[in-house]
Here is the input.
Amino acid sequence: MLILFMLLWMIAAILILTDIKNESTRWGGLLAFFAGCGGLGVVWRESVVPSLAPYITNSTVSYFVALIGGVFASFAYYFGPYSLLMFAIVTADWLKEKIVNKKRVVSVVLLIPIAIMYILFPVEPFYQISFYLLVVCIAPYILVANIILICSYFMEKDLRLKRQKFLNCIIVVIPTFISLFMNFILPALGFKSTYSPFVIAVVFVIFIIASVRYGIMGVKLKLDKYRNVILENVMEHITDSFIVVDEKNRVTRFNQTYVEYFGEIKIEQDFISILECNPLFIKIKKNLMDNIKKAKEMDKVVRFESHIFYKSNYDRYFTIEVNPINITDKYLGSIILFKDITEHKRMIYLIEQNQNQLIENERLVTLNQLVGGIAHNLKTPLMASSGGIEILASNTEKIKRTIMESDGTDNQFNKDIFEEMELWENRLREYISYMNEVVTTVKGQAVPVSADNETYFEVKKIIDRVNILMKHELNSSSCKINYCLSVDENLRLKGNINYIIQVINNLISNAIDSYDNEKNGVIEIKIEKKLTDKIDIIVKDYGKGIREDIKNKLFRQMITTKGKDGTGLGLYISRSIITSKFNGDIRVESVEGEGSSFIITIPIGGDGSEYHAKYSNS
Here is the structure.
């Protein structure tokens, strides 16, 4: 009898230690353990207690020593059949799929008769039990479990799995039927309960042989056992996350990397419910399930890319690979591999971004050279025209005096002619002066993008240049600029004014576009002091605003709200200019439908000091 429970516990240890994550293996191990408790109970009652009796004088100690045998006996009678039935349920695919969401309820309900038996027959040192009630309440567990195991064998179509179920029947069904007859039915009829060590020994030998050659109850000893250990170790160290689902879309395996990327899940959990409950999968659920179905139908690997993002704290790109598992033309499930390609995507994006910026810089260099050449060529004739007008004005005055002196009369006709000539002289002088100012400003903007001319400029120069350069665009769009200065207009800032004008003009152009051709759009430019060593230049509009998802990426990526008419380069380059040329910052505040404010923050002076000296207009 000692060998009996030792053999059963060895089977239990082999089952549990081989694959403790497998539910059927766990229940099989518990079945063997509780069956062994019956043999241990007999050994304890018939051998251990009598051997210890002469050495125990305390009645309380003697009571508890004898009670241990009763506990083992109750485990064998109650929890042995219970574990057998649960093992049968979890190994029967046809039954498990019907109670997949009620399995926990079933396991609890099946404990009710056991609880009743413990209440009616509390555990005592020399445990006495009503075998009639035992046959009525507990014996059906054994009968139903064996029927389920036999049905599972006949319903299985896969030859490999059918052999496994056949071996399960030999190892489990035959011994438990013998136990049902000898330990339940015979005692109920008045015969003595007995265990058959021979049957247990035969079961153990068959279990070991079957485990070595074929695998049984989830166990394949020797080489395959070590292969499983190696496989588990390899899978846990795979950098890509994966999950394995069976033909009913239940999770059968996953690695730690999957948990780190997507959160905790459980074995046997429904994969579809995981997709529905996890916010990371909501947008890719349909695509993923369609590809699982496609891989199953085509019996080949299916790969696709997916962008998984959630709010602002999760933004990753994955290549998802679905591998169908088919054995002897039967679909058993799929392995779904999630390969993180976020860094790869970012590198490609960065290369494209740098390439576009290089192209834009080259375009700007070419444009600067062209504008600089045109401005230089226009400057000479404009200066000549200005000088010619002065000469004409001087000659006109001389002719006027000569005619007046020779005529000696106040001729109204001559007077009107000279007044009109003087009027146009003044107008031409104004036009040429304006044209000269425009050309000078444009020529000042047409500097190489790599130039780092560390000069100083006054706040008022910003306003003057913006008015000149943006006048045409503002007039054509029927928009106007309102200035609001809370700093001295003669406050000097360190840096190249051409860069800051480029940024502000770009922001004004965007503000004009935000009105979508609406008339009378208002753009506010505020220049105000921030703390003691910085100023804010704010460009505000009351247009359509910016969507939240775009606003978060506005300066980090080449994002545009203008569709095919925009490149997204303007704001990206603007931020680069502000941070690199002025050691400042630029940010946006926007409410969709209400407008946007772009705030440029730059130090007052390159070293953070203030320059309050006033300079005259010269």
About this structure: DSSP finds 20 helices and twelve strands in the chain. The longest strand covers residues 314-327.
